[in-house]
């Protein structure tokens, strides 16, 4: 099969980035406003934008891996292309954080140990287990994806698709159990690598479903739509009934349900016709543009929030939020076109040679 480029998923990436920016804005600021405090109660859901990123990434990465596993340069092409996309901006931002951040905000300089932890993508461990660490905390999700990338290509290469389905089931159950164990020990299960592999593997399940010729709108559109609505209803009931109650299994169940909602949502989007109103909205230029630079907006937005909060606040939360979004977009746009694009062009040296991907237009951020 020739891999289709889903323009609507660029918009989904943009939506996820906006969700996270809004969540962090309300988590890191404080305004004396009734509407602000009302929004504070709603915006924590934006935290799940990271889960949406995981499901989406699991889908986009897995569909490439499934279709290139016969390539002689399967591993080298994948890891080199991923490195060119992720590492330059990641390490550039670490330099900014550890050198310029202390100067701008008059903070103490981080220790070499902290720098090594973030440089080697091990930050999910101290963040989860409350070990003292100084660094850009929101980079935990980048660590999760890197850990998944180390494991998943190997499994896809050596296992049959039937065994991959079994692996996905094991990751689903394993992540759920891991979350219960961590919650029971008093740790937040949201930030650990192995407790997020279910989201990424559900994205991989969507990629497997896409490979099935029977996965068509006429066959699956209605069942997935009904299942999605049912899961949303169950999730809402769980949140309402158990709001404020610390029950470890329920905490783990909530995260699983959110992952399933995004898995079903993305599966539904690839079945909907392009002229569908939802897809037309997601394919609109503003969301597509925001999705294209979403990696940069995710990396830079925390710094922008802190600068706006500490140095140029207007005392009007809505105006400050708009400033944060605009500046995050501007910085990410400049970063993409002046810095990242230089490395992205090098990906052309490691093109996929398989017949399934030779003519396909694919973007994975």
UniProtKB/TrEMBL annotation:
| GO MF term set | acyltransferase activity, transferring groups other than amino-acyl groups; hydrolase activity
Entry GO terms, CC: membrane
The record, for InterPro entries, names: Acyl_transf_3_dom, Acyltransferase_3
Q: Which Pfam families match?
A: Acyl_transf_3
The portions of this protein that span the membrane are 12-29, 49-66, 87-104, 166-184, 190-208, 220-242, 248-272, 293-309, 315-339
Q: Which GO terms describe its biological process?
A: polysaccharide biosynthetic process
Alphabetized UniProt keyword annotations: Acyltransferase, Hydrolase, Membrane, Transferase, Transmembrane, Transmembrane helix
The Acyltransferase domain is annotated at: 7-335
Q: Which PANTHER family match?
A: ACETYLTRANSFERASE, ACYL_TRANSF_3 DOMAIN-CONTAINING PROTEIN
**Protein name, entry field:** Peptidoglycan/LPS O-acetylase OafA/YrhL, contains acyltransferase and SGNH-hydrolase domains
């Amino acid at each position: 099969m020739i891999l289709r480029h889903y323009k609507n998923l660029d918009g989904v990436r943009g939506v996820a980035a906006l969700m996270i920016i809004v969540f962090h804005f309300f988590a890191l600021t404080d305004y004396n406003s009734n509407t602000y405090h009302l929004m504070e109660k709603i915006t924590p859901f934006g935290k799940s934008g990271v889960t949406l990123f995981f499901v989406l990434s699991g889908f986009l990465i897995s569909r490439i891996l499934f279709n290139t596993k016969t390539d002689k340069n399967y591993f080298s092409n994948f890891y080199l292309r991923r490195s060119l996309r992720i590492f330059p901006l990641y390490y550039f931002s670490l330099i900014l954080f550890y050198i310029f951040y202390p100067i701008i905000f008059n903070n103490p300089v981080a220790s070499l140990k902290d720098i090594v932890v973030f440089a080697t993508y091990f930050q999910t461990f101290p963040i989860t287990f409350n070990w003292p660490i100084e660094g850009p905390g929101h980079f935990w999700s980048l660590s999760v994806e890197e850990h998944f990338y180390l494991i998943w290509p190997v499994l896809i290469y050596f296992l049959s698709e039937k065994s991959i389905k079994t692996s996905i089931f094991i990751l689903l159950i394993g992540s759920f159990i891991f979350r219960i164990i961590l919650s029971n020990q008093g740790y937040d299960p949201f930030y650990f690598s192995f407790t997020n592999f279910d989201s990424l593997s559900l994205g991989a399940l969507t990629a497997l479903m896409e490979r099935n010729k029977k996965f068509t709108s006429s066959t699956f559109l209605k069942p997935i739509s009904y299942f999605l609505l049912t899961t949303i209803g169950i999730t809402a009931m769980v949140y309402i009934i158990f709001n404020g109650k610390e029950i470890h299994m329920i905490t783990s169940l909530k995260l699983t349900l959110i992952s399933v909602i995004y898995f079903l949502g993305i599966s539904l989007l690839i079945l909907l016709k392009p002229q569908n109103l939802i897809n037309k909205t997601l394919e609109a230029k503003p969301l597509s543009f925001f999705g294209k630079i979403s990696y940069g907006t995710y990396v830079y937005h925390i710094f922008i929030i802190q600068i706006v909060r500490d140095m140029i606040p207007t005392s009007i939360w809505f105006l400050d939020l708009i400033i944060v979004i605009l500046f995050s977009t501007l910085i990410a746009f400049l970063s993409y076109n002046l810095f990242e694009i230089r490395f992205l062009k090098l990906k052309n040296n490691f093109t996929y040679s398989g017949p399934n991907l030779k003519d396909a237009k694919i973007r994975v951020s």
